[in-house]
Amino acid sequence: MTQSTTGTAAAHPLPPPKELRRLREAKSLSEEQVAAAVGVTRATVRAWETGRTSPRGRKREAYARLIGTGDADALTPGAPNKWSTDDAARAAGAPPKTAPTAGSGRDTGSGSVAAAAAPATTAPADPAASAASAASETDAEIEAGPSAAEAFDALYRHSAAALFRQTYLLTGRRGLSREAVGKAFGLAWQRWPEVAVDRDPVGWVRAAAYDHAMAPWHRFRREHRHLDPPPEAPGPRALLDAMLALPPSYRRTLLLHDGVGLGLPETAAETEASTPAAAGRLMTARAAVAERVPEFAEPSTPAEQSALLHERLGALALAQPASSLPVPELIRTCSERKAQLWTRAAIAFTVLLIGLTLIALATAPRKYEPPRSPAQQVGGVPPLGGPQKLTPQTEKLQKKLGGELVHGPARLVPRAG
């Protein structure tokens, strides 16, 4: 199996992942079309184009023929090589010598804030042994790709340090920056099916971290009420003070465009603003920083000013140690526990609501009975009126008339005298 996979990789070399995507888009092919033609899933094609996995066997041959890289002379000795040594090693099945720097998922330069992540990892001393070990994996294992936990851990190790440094430039508080990064990755793990298929998962987590770090209610928390001690050097201190003096939306726009290296449309989309509004915020933020730090007023063009801010923000971000960040396993565990806690709380509340409803139904009256008002004494009512008290003569006559009506004739004839 080792010989067959290695021989297939040598016979059908592939360019680096970014070049694979460019070639596919140049042929106007979608990921679904490539997946259907090769016989894999769309997620597998995306994994090939991001460098997480590499096609093997017949699928590699079909994939190379489909995107037009099936020439065997592309990487032969003595032929001109348009790719780097690391790309050739990746095409042959061996891991590259250095891992890509973490950041926003875009190539923004070595001095950018996005590149201020963990140091690059070196490959083992024996590349041939690593290539043989990687080639010994079965086609099924490679096509399956990494698990959700492995992909999340890779994303965390790739971008957590850079996001911590970026949020520090936004807030000036290291504790709040660590909390924001942890909250963002915890939310990403809870919504991993959504994040895993996102075009820019780092951007998804970055937006969540920025939103949490810049929430206005943090000013009422005692542990985040005051800023951390600024850098001792006067230049970085002045730059950080100028950044923190900007309004939150202007600060975020300046960091995304000049620090991280996003384009103006991407910056406007992430800050939920129109492109003209983002451009206006960017110009105003640059002018405010140049007013407080005269060094940034020296460049004659906006491009030179942006490049200088890019360099200085990257240096200021790299000065912040990110060794105190938790491991990704802890982030996943805390996120799962929190999700379980909220689920149990929702179930308990639902059971309580159902129980109270049943008790109310059991104790409620079957028909409506109007309430009886309590008896009370009423004052201020005049006495009842009526006929006057009869005199003794009138009472005698009344008795006489009553007796005659009962025992006398039917008609009473009055008599004189």
UniProtKB/TrEMBL annotation:
Residue ranges of coiled coil: none
One protein family per Pfam: HTH_31
Keyword Ribosomal protein (UniProt): no
GO biological process: DNA-templated transcription initiation
PROSITE patterns with a match to the protein in the record: HTH_CROC1 (PS50943)
Sequence intervals crossing the membrane: 341-364
Source superkingdom: Bacteria
One Gene Ontology cellular component annotation held by this UniProt entry: DNA-directed RNA polymerase complex
Entries under SUPFAM superfamilies matching the protein: lambda repressor-like DNA-binding domains (SSF47413), Sigma2 domain of RNA polymerase sigma factors (SSF88946), Sigma3 and sigma4 domains of RNA polymerase sigma factors (SSF88659)
HTH cro/C1-type domain span: 20-75
Annotated family: Belongs to the sigma-70 factor family. ECF subfamily.
Protein name: DNA-directed RNA polymerase specialized sigma24 family protein
